[in-house]
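Tutorial, part two.
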Amino acid sequence: MYPSLTILLMFALSIGSSIAAGVPDNSPETVRPVPPPGKPVAPQDREAIESGLKQLEDKIGALRELAQSKPLVARLLPDVQIFHKAVHDALAYDEIFNPTNEIVAAKALIAAGLARAEQLRDSNPSWLNSTGLVVRGYISKIDGSIQPYGLVVPSTYQASGAQKHRLDAWFHGRGETLSELNFLNERLKSPGEFTPVDTLVLHLYGRYCNANKFAGEIDLFEALDHVKTHYRVDDNRLVIRGFSMGGAACWQFAAHYAGKWAAAAPGAGFSETPDFLKVFQKETLAPTWYEKKLWHMYDCTDYALNFFNCPTVAYSGEVDSQKQAADMMAAAMKTHGIDLIHIIGPATAHRYHPDSKIEINRRIDAIAMRGRDPVPRKVRFQTYTLRYNEMLWVRLDALDAHWEEARVDAEIVNDHHIVAKTKNARALSFIMQPGSCPLDMTQPQTIELDGQTLNAPKPGSDRSWNVHFRKLDNRWVSVASLASSGLEKAPGLQGPIDDAFMDSFIMVTPSGSPLHNQSGSWALAEQQRAFKHWRSQFRGEARQVADTAVTPELIAKHNLVLWGDPSSNKVLRDIADKLPISWTADSIVVGPNKYDTSNHALIMIYPNPLNPKRYVVLNSGFTFRDYDYLNNARQVSKLPDYAVIDLSIPPNSRYPGKVVDAGFFGERWELKQPNSIAP
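Running the prediction step on this input gives:
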């Protein structure tokens, strides 16, 4: 056998379940569980761990009481809670995968949590001043869960100093057994692949094994915000890096948020769904029309133009099948005139070649030393959804049509004139933060927008500048505010269904009787599944409340996930006549199409009629299912803004039943015609 292929096979065997299993995982009928079942824990070990957890739980309870009068305790309590949650969940959810090692690790984490609890009680949190390996935690806005992250704090960092430091965010590879217990244990023992001099390294947990998508995506920004509250971080020297599944995450963050980073260094991974699954997974794909459209959310090839705004150094092993990711990106970037720097490890499989690491570091360090320019003279921006609507000083506020390519090319020509060209844009803004605007503050500005010349106000004396434009009757006009007179798809309120689970949500359970036993049983089963799988795949306990207990405060703060039907769920009954799809005792009416409610149910996302700044979701958690857990490239949205489910076909590893009608609402959240599962 060719030597390099032997290396590749040996490596794949050596890491076992840490990567997708390939062709054996292409059968929806024989889906192995992710995470896998744990191993038995000896009774004496279980008893010792439970005893330690009880001690830690008692100390956390005392700290909660102390937190009511001591802000420091309230602020740092998650740094103690991460240890309890990690060990408790591993034991409670059968996630002890290697008892020989993990029992020892569990006891060590409990001891670390107890030590921190005592320090916090005495207002002496020594970990705030520690260098080296540190683990921290924060409370996620999404579900109120405690989420961990790791830090490498350089020896040069001084807690009382003034210097701001470069920060590198690292995204880990696939690890089906990467429980919080194993993550914290690793982060307390290993600094990781790269530790640049004088640099904070942020190791993301990313809510387990999802390639930092959806809630895993928000994890980066929540963790980064938390780091910034405790450490001095240079916003213009943020670098993103990762390998394998982490390389896929790095491609995704670089493509969607290119303007935020000084540099990106993805290694291996995947950069899009369809070609990767054909090449790496050897999977035969048969997507629906709406699934193809939804690939536009995470297919980085569709955002290749954005790399104009982010210096990028890619890496692949020469004989690694995941070299496909960078090859796909290189081809996509080439269409925009961008030549990808692609470092290739000679005769190397799925790992970094030592010489390649030196060259990657040389380039990334030089870029990071220079830092990001927050207001470059030229911005080129490409997107398909308002979920990703900003690039440096350019912001898209409304589209003509979601899931079609939108573009903005903008250039500061001189200190009083900007030229911009757009595609598929209906509203946009130019926003420059205080101190950053290079325009002449003594002169009114002129904007040439798609050939139209528009006047704009002068920058402020603090060198900030915010201007807004909206297209009316196919002509751009300058407006003081982008507030709309009615419903409109807007950033963070554009769908699809999965978007509701990237912000604060709460599950609303029904208390009444369903319209029909079959739909009621289906809704209950899907509700229970949603709770279970949110925990297993995104590592939080979904908050829930009965429909009779929903308050104005909950409506104001959360996306509401309503389970049941207008008969069983009071909140759904209260808003049913305000939704574009009718659900009565007899029929679900989608435009001209009617479906018998005795064997059909409705899944949908829509602005909450009780608070249009938040969503309501009907009868759905996140939409990818068990089959998709087996390969991270499959973990993309499977349903659009609405779907009608035929309950005569039971749910399976791919779908919640047979989808007989599905589609996207229009840009005004209107029901578009025709409505069917065909395009």
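The longest strand covers residues 233-243. In part three we will examine how such features are distributed along the chain.
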